[in-house]
Design a protein that fits this description.
The complex is a heterodimer of chains A (321) and B (297). With 321 residues, chain A is mainly α. Chain A has helices at 2-19, 24-34, 40-51, 59-71, 85-120, 125-139, 142-156, 176-213, 216-223, 228-240, 242-265, 271-280, 284-312. Chain B has helices at 2-7, 12-29, 31-48, 50-53, 83-119, 121-136, 139-150, 155-163, 168-182, 185-192, 197-234, 244-253, 264-291. The chains are: A mainly alpha (321), B mainly alpha (297).
Chain lengths: 321, 297
């Protein structure tokens, strides 16, 4: 499944770059050729260099070359920065992974615990208030969270910085000032992604809890005198959390989408910002490389979520689904 | 009593109408759905009747960046256009995009789910494989890349791009519904009576799928609104008059995030978008309760 998805991503980028009418690779080659100073063979070599594919020849051979070069880690070269796309991604991806993983874990923990509490108190006054509140929180799109947080915490109260990944005076590396500065600068991006997803976790867990509470085995456990805390953790919680674990994959994918807005608003040097910048200047090799890498990252997340699911649910044996 | 009588009336047109009225009554009876529906109707009115009763946005150098006042209820932007007019004239475009996206993705999902469910075998595996792919990939990143390649503000093209990523869940639901009824005795009976495949689809399958379709439709309107406003907010699409996203983009571009005085330029479009999205959420929750009696309690 993961391999199929990555193959799909590579095929799609190949179609956009090299097959679709008015595709960037051909346009680029024609532009270079029509400048007059460069002969066609050099133009072809330049296209091959930047896009990581051979612009001429039968389409299946072109696809084979593209696929093998991508699988060997050659994602092409940025037209704007004139640097290998893989280098640009290696510089930016860690920052994005840091904010995405931190915010997803925080939102998952807070939303799940709170959602279960509300599920237990369904239809009380505090449940209704919290549910309406979280619905509104859930309805605010990530770009509005980003702008509002930048506005209130970054500018009005000057609590957090409004750009960059670390301060001017620190040297990147494993030292305390750098890590402190990194955490300080990533607080607003993490908070934005957290707020944009916590409502979904909470509402999901609430309805899972309500559904599980209606099951016969919960009633049976309660009636046979199992302590309420044990019922909550082992009978209700363990079953209600399963759909949430599946949701992690979708949430990671959503966080990658959201990182484009978050990193653009906070000028945080992650992969979303890289993608945004390359979209505005039409740096197609970078766009395609980012797309393939993001899909690969999501697929790794999917595999991890599957493993966790197997640990939580003994009915699923890992490796035999 | 009337319900029982209606069920015995052979005229299928009348039966359809009565079931529609019944569904509407159920939705209206649910508090969440009612509030959501009222807000959505307000936005639809804003998009249809609004432009007829509001003066079009006009640039005016003498009324630049005014906070909300009697003359400009929602203030003015950096070229002196009334924010109220910008919002009202941006609404039809947003509604059109989201409606078309929901329509496209519903049709794609139904066709793929039907083919996968009916044919089985290799076609089924391929179609369901691509459904899984579509569900897992980060949709906005794919949308952003496709939009950067196409760069068009044409509603149909834009809705086509937006619907590429949103048909997964409904296609899966359609397929399982097809599988569930494909070998059922009542379908055998229907086939024995000589029912054609299209009447099976329209008379048996679609009514069973209706709850999924309605909720999918609303979720897609919501998703498409957010994604299209997001694309305009990022400014990757050709400038298109007054879109809600363009208003936000302008606000960020003139530095409204830097001062309390121009905060209204951010707050007003934000409230506008959030209210619409929250109303659609309420509508789906209410409908969930209507369709799924276990949640009612």
């Amino acid at each position: 499944m993961a391999a199929v998805t990555i193959f799909f991503a590579i095929t799609l980028t190949f179609i956009i770059v090299d097959v679709a009418p008015g595709n960037p690779a051909l346009t680029y080659m024609q532009q270079v050729e029509s400048s007059g100073t460069i002969n066609p063979r050099t133009a072809e070599a330049l296209t091959q260099y930047y896009f990581g594919l051979e612009p001429t020849g039968p389409i299946y051979l072109q696809f084979y070359h593209y696929l093998s070069s991508v699988l060997h880690g050659n994602l092409g070269v940025s037209i704007i920065y004139n640097e290998p796309v893989s280098t640009l991604i290696a510089q930016t991806l860690p920052y994005t992974l840091f904010i995405i993983i931190t915010s997803t874990l925080l939102a998952f923990a807070v939303g799940t615990v709170w959602g279960m509490r509300l599920g237990y108190r369904r239809n009380t006054k505090s449940d209704t208030t919290a549910t309406v509140g979280f619905t509104v929180v859930h309805a605010v799109p990530v770009y509005i969270w980003a702008v509002l947080l930048l506005f209130y915490l970054g500018f009005i109260y000057h609590v957090f910085p409004h750009g960059g990944a670390y301060g001017a005076g620190v040297t990147p590396g494993f030292n305390f000032p750098f890590i402190a500065s990194l955490l300080y600068h990533s607080t607003l991006p993490i908070l934005t992604l957290f707020l944009a997803s916590v409502g979904g976790w909470m509402l999901g867990m609430r309805s899972n809890t309500i559904t599980t509470l209606g099951e016969d085995f919960v009633r049976f456990a309660e009636l046979s005198g199992v302590p309420p805390n044990r019922v909550a953790s082992r009978y209700v919680g363990r079953n209600a959390i399963l759909p949430q674990v599946t949701g992690v994959i979708i949430s990671i994918a959503g966080a990658f989408s959201g990182s484009v807005f978050v990193e653009q608003t906070f000028s945080y040097p992650g992969i979303g910002n890289l993608l945004y910048n390359s979209v505005t200047v039409k740096d197609y090799p970078v766009e395609m490389g980012v797309f393939i890498m993001v899909i690969t990252a999501v697929m790794v997340g999917t595999l991890l979520a599957d493993l966790v699911y197997g640990l939580l649910d003994p009915r699923v044996k890992v490796g035999r689904s | 009593m009337t319900k029982q009588i209606l069920q015995w009336i052979p005229n299928s047109k009348f039966r359809f109408l009565s079931s529609l009225v019944n569904t509407f009554r159920l939705i209206w009876g649910n508090k969440k759905a009612r509030v959501g529906l009222l807000i959505v109707v307000f936005y639809i009115l804003m998009g249809t009747v609004g432009p007829l009763v509001t003066p079009p946005p006009r640039t005016n150098p003498s009324t630049v960046l005014q906070p909300p006042s009697l003359r400009f209820p929602l203030g003015t932007d950096q070229v002196g256009e009334s924010m109220l007019s910008l919002i009202v004239y941006g609404t039809p475009f947003v509604l059109e995009i989201s409606f078309l996206t929901a329509l496209f993705s519903t049709v794609i999902a139904l066709v793929i789910g039907l083919i996968a469910g009916y044919s089985g075998g290799l076609a089924d595996s391929i179609l369901m494989g691509s459904t899984d792919v579509i569900i897992t990939i980060p949709s906005f990143i794919l949308i952003l890349i496709l939009a950067s390649y196409v760069r068009s503000s044409n509603p149909i093209v834009l809705s086509g791009i937006l619907s590429v990523t949103s048909w997964g869940y409904l296609a899966r639901a359609t397929r399982s519904q097809v599988l569930a009824i494909r070998n059922s005795p009542y379908l055998e009976r229907a086939k024995l009576f000589g029912l054609r495949w299209y009447s099976i689809v329209f008379m048996e399958l679609l009514p069973a799928l209706m709850p999924y379709i309605v909720i999918h439709f609303i979720f897609n309107i919501q998703g498409a609104t957010l994604a299209s406003v997001g694309l305009y907010f990022l400014g990757v699409l050709p400038y298109n008059g007054a879109n809600w996203g363009v208003i936000l983009n302008n606000a960020e571009a003139i530095g409204a995030t830097f001062s309390l005085r121009y905060a209204y330029m951010i707050v007003i479009p934000s409230v506008l978008i959030v209210a619409f999205v929250a109303a659609l959420f309420l509508l789906t929750y209410g409908m969930d309760e209507v369709f799924n009696p276990r949640l009612r309690r």
